[in-house]
Amino acid sequence: MVVVGAGIVGAATAYELTRLGARVTIVEQDVPAAGATGSSFGWVGRHGRWPGGAADLRDHVLPQWRRLEQEVPGVRVRWSGSLSWPPGHHPVGEPPEADADLLGAAEVRTLEPALRRPPEAAVHVPGDAAVDAGAVTRALVAAAVAGGARLLTGVEARLDVSPGGARVLGVATDRGPIAADHVVVAAGAGTRVLCAAAGVDVPVAASPATLLRFRAPSARAPSGRLRAVLSCPELEVRADGDGSLLVSAADGDPSPAHLDALATATAARIRATLRGTDDLRLEAATVGPRPMPADGAPIVGPAPGVAGLFVVVAHSGVCLAPVLGREVAREVVTGAESALLRRCRFGR
Ligand SMILES: Cc1cc2nc3c(=O)[nH]c(=O)nc-3n(C[C@H](O)[C@H](O)[C@H](O)COP(=O)(O)OP(=O)(O)OC[C@H]3O[C@@H](n4cnc5c(N)ncnc54)[C@H](O)[C@@H]3O)c2cc1C
């Protein structure tokens, strides 16, 4: 089998396939986590919108992350919880849901002493978490390789199909063809172009977003340390455990002038929000091509009309990678349809 793409979704799928005994070749045009994954904020939880078939996967996000953390060396999860305001900012995972609490200003202050001006009300989800999506991806690829998978990096794949296009034969690469009965495309925002060449339309586009990493030496002091993933209308920020603060910005203009302006404005918002951040320094700003299906829901399943070709692409791919990897691998290896993926198919 071939898995195209070593972002977090391809890495999780390749890992699960090897666990089920499949012989897997991972083909990555760059290096693992070079795509959206390497710029991800890495918030893992039930927050945000879960359109269509994504809603069926939502309850599996945290349990599947717990499983991977136990199973795979190098997969580390920061079980930090999350704090968002105003209530209603994130429609899911909020009271009266059992896993979320509505806190008043005094409770928020106790929970996050680093906040300069605690909001009057905020939603706390203690079970939420954050991951370094790049590190997790490399750990999953390493586990797949330890389980027998072959990894090709710096190799672009093109789909190789039978005359008439009814069946996939493998992939073509500059290093020669790789024959396979099954090809799983996990190419993120590159999925549409890759599949179009085989006559398959996958309605997914790149929605670029920016990850900013700041170093804030004083934010390591216990009094100033940010604990939870914080989400409010001005800012989505979390600590990275080493004195860094990570910020996710939906804005994805990669021009240097724009990134400079974004960094300056973001730094001002962090200083206004958190204590101990006067010595803030930008370390990096990277733009990642978030794969965004046209209707927002994951597209997962056999490609119509091309036997052996399987596609897996989703927004919130970090949240979903463990559950998608498991379900896709089971389906590809056993042929039994996953009930969880029923509403994620082509032509839903
Ligand atoms: C700033 C930012 C913040 C985010 N925050 C969150 C968050 O908090 N929580 C969350 O769940 N999600 C978040 N996301 C989204 C999440 O990161 C993505 O949904 C996820 O990383 C997608 O993973 P993927 O493996 O599908 O795609 P990618 O990581 O893009 O991987 C696709 C891989 O395929 C390779 N590839 C493409 N075409 C080919 C080809 N022809 N041959 C070989 N290789 C190919 C690419 O090089 C790439 O490595 C965020 C994204 C960004 C940018």
Q: Which features does this protein show?
A:
FAD/NAD(P)-binding domain, 26% helix, 2 domains, six-stranded mixed β-sheet, alpha/beta, 348 residues, D-Amino Acid Oxidase, Chain A, domain 2, eight-stranded mixed β-sheet, binds flavin-adenine dinucleotide
Number of strands: 19
Biggest β-sheet: strands ordered side by side in the sheet: 5-6-4-14-15-16-13-17
Bound molecules: flavin-adenine dinucleotide
Return residue spans where pLDDT drops below 50 for at least 5 consecutive residues. none
CATH architecture of the largest domain: 3-Layer(bba) Sandwich
What CATH calls the topology of the largest domain is: FAD/NAD(P)-binding domain
The first-to-last residue Cα distance is 26 Å
Output the helix-strand order. Answer: EHEEHHEEHEEHEEEEEHEEEEHEEEH
